[in-house]
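worker-03 picked up job from queue 'complexes'. Input manifest follows; two sequence lines, order preserved.
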Amino acid sequence: MKLKRPTLLLDKEKCLHNIQKMKEKADKNGVKFRPHFKTHQSAEVGEWFRDAGVEAITVSSVTMARYFASHGWKDISIAFPVNFAEVDEINELAKTIRLNLLIESMESFIFVEDNIHPKIGIYLKIDAGYQRTGIAVEDHEKILVLILEIMHARHHEFEGLLLHNGNTYHAKSVDEIRQIHTQSMIKIKALKDFLSLHDIVPKISSGDTPSMSILNDFSGIDEIRPGNFVFYDVMQQKLGSCTFGDIAVALACPVVAKNNERNELVIYGGAIHLSKDFITDNDGNRIFGLVVFFDKTGWEEPLENTFVKSLSQEHGIIKTTPELVNKIKIGSFVGILPVHSCLTVHQMREFYSLKNEKITTYLSC
Amino acid sequence: MKLKRPTLLLDKEKCLHNIQKMKEKADKNGVKFRPHFKTHQSAEVGEWFRDAGVEAITVSSVTMARYFASHGWKDISIAFPVNFAEVDEINELAKTIRLNLLIESMESFIFVEDNIHPKIGIYLKIDAGYQRTGIAVEDHEKILVLILEIMHARHHEFEGLLLHNGNTYHAKSVDEIRQIHTQSMIKIKALKDFLSLHDIVPKISSGDTPSMSILNDFSGIDEIRPGNFVFYDVMQQKLGSCTFGDIAVALACPVVAKNNERNELVIYGGAIHLSKDFITDNDGNRIFGLVVFFDKTGWEEPLENTFVKSLSQEHGIIKTTPELVNKIKIGSFVGILPVHSCLTVHQMREFYSLKNEKITTYLSC
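worker-03 finished. Artifact:
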C-alpha cells in the first residue's frame, strides 16, 4: 500500500490473539462473554468475534446497535442510560433482536415501561465506586425498589445488575486494580446477600478491560463486557493490562518537518486523528502516543526516549533523541501507538490490515 | 427540528457578525484577509465569507484544499508543512488554482522544486516564539539562504514569511496576548531590517485568533489568517478574544441520568462529540464545556456554577447546583458551548442552523 496521509493500521494476528485469550478466560470462568464493540466499531472485526464463538455483544449507542443488528447480531446490550429521544429507533430495533437497555432511575424505568413496546431486557446500573453513573451499590433499599418495579414490569425482563469499574483506569499499579475489583465485589456480595432475603438473585455484568485483563478469577460475576482489549493501547500497557506487543493498532503518519535543536519531529497526525487523550509519565510529561518503526511484518517495539508530546488539529510533535532526529527523514512514515485506541478508531473511521485490506466501521462513509 | 441525539447547532447571525467584524478590521488595517477554513470546514459557511468579499483562504490539509477548490475557491494556502506523499494530489490541484505551500527546510524546498510542476507560491514558515514548527525568527542567515533559494526557484514564487503565534493560547491575560504579539513583531522587524540589506522585502502573514481579535493595529503585517473567530468557543472567551454572546455553535445534548447527591447530570455527549480539549479554571477544575438553556431565538448565557467536568467516549458529566439538578429533567436537552470549536466541528461533521437547515462539511458522508 502506498501511504499518503495518516492511516490506521490493524495487525489482525494480534487482534485475533487478544480475542482468543479473553474468550478462553471467560470460558474457563464459566461467565458469559458479551464484548463491548465500541472500540473497534466494525462489522468485519465483529465477524472475528463470531468466529471465536461470541453471540452476544455490548454497544454504547442506539446508532451502533442498529449497525451491528444490520450485520446479523441478535443479542445486543446498550450499556448507556436510555436516551428518551430515540424511542422510535429503540422500538423498531427491539422488534427484530433481543435488546437490553440500561436504566438507573425510576423516571427512566417509567419511560421505558410506558413507551417501549416489544419485549426487552433491562439492566439496572450500579455504581460500585467509579462515581460516573448508576445507583450507589450501598443504597440497598433504592436498588430493591427499582428491581421490584422492573420484575413486575408489564412484559419486560430484568436482565441483571450492570457495573463498570472505570476507576481502574486511574489505578497506579496492578495491585490497585485488583484492590478496586475486590472492593467492588465485596460491596456487590453485600448487595446480593440483602437481595437474597427478598428471593432476588440477580445476574452480575461487569467489564472494564484492566480488571478483565489482569484478573484470572471472575467469581461473583455472570457476564463480562470488556471492549478495549481487542486492540489495547498505550494507556492499557501503562496500567499493566497488556504488553506493547499486544497493541493491535498503529497510526501511520508522514514526517513533515524536523527541529534538530529541540530533537523534535513534526508529523501529519494530530488531535483529529489520535484524539487528545494523554497519559502523564513519571516526569510529568503528557504523552499523546508512542512511536514505532514499521518492518516487513508490522511494527517494532516503541522507540526509547521518544513520544508524541503535543497535538494540534493536524500536527503532532514528537520529542526524540539526537540520533533519531538525524536518522528519521522528512517524507518517511512512522507509526504512533495510540494512548486511547477507542477514540483513535472513532477519529479515523476505517482501518487497513497489514495485507492492505480496507476495514470499515459504522461511521465509514 | 426534533432532536434525537447530540446535534451541533449553528447560530448564523452570530457567525455572520464574527465574519463581518474581522473583515472590517482587516480592511481598516489595509491587510489581506485570508481566513483559515479549518474551523468551519464547510462550503456553505465559506459562501458567507465570499458574500463578505473574501477571495483567498487558508486550509490545513491537501484534502481540505481539494474540497474548497471544488467549491470554487481559486486562491488557497495550505498552512501546514508540505506532505511529500501527497505530491500527485498537489500537482493536480496546482494546475487549476493558485496554490500556496509552506516549507521550513531545504529538504522540503528541494522536494517541491523537483516534484511540483505547475507554478505555486511558497511561504517560508517562521517561528516567532511558539516553538511548534518553523525556522527560529532569530536565525537570519538560515532564513536568508532559504529565501534566496525560493526566489531563484525554477518557476515557483516566494509568497512571504508565515507565522502563527499559537503561544497566545497559553496567555493568562489580554495584556500577555498583546505582549506576545509585540515581542513577535519586534523580532520580525529585526529580520526584515536584515533582509532589506539584501533587497528582500517579504510579505508577512500572521494569524492566531486571540491576537487578531484583541488587537486593533496590524502594523507590520500584510495578511491575516485567523480561523477560530468564525465560531469562537469557551477557550477564546477565557482568553478575552470574545464574549459568550459571540460563540456561534452549541452542541445540543439529551440528559440521560442525574445524580442528586453529587449535583451531577449525565448527558449523551462525550469525547466523540466535543473532543477532549479542556481549560482549567482558577480552582484547578478541568472544564470540557459550559452549559446553556435553549430559548426561542437560540441559547442563553452559560448557567452559573455549572460545567462539563468529564467526558468518556459517549458520556458527559455536568457538575451543577442543587437547584438546577432538580430543575433539569431526564429526557430534556441542554446546550454545551464547546471548549475548542474547531475540534467539535470536526467531531460532528455537520451542523444544523437554528432554522433547521442542515449544513455539511468536507467530511460529511
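worker-03 released lock.
Residues 174-196 of chain A form the longest helix (23 residues).
Chain A has a mean pLDDT of 97.
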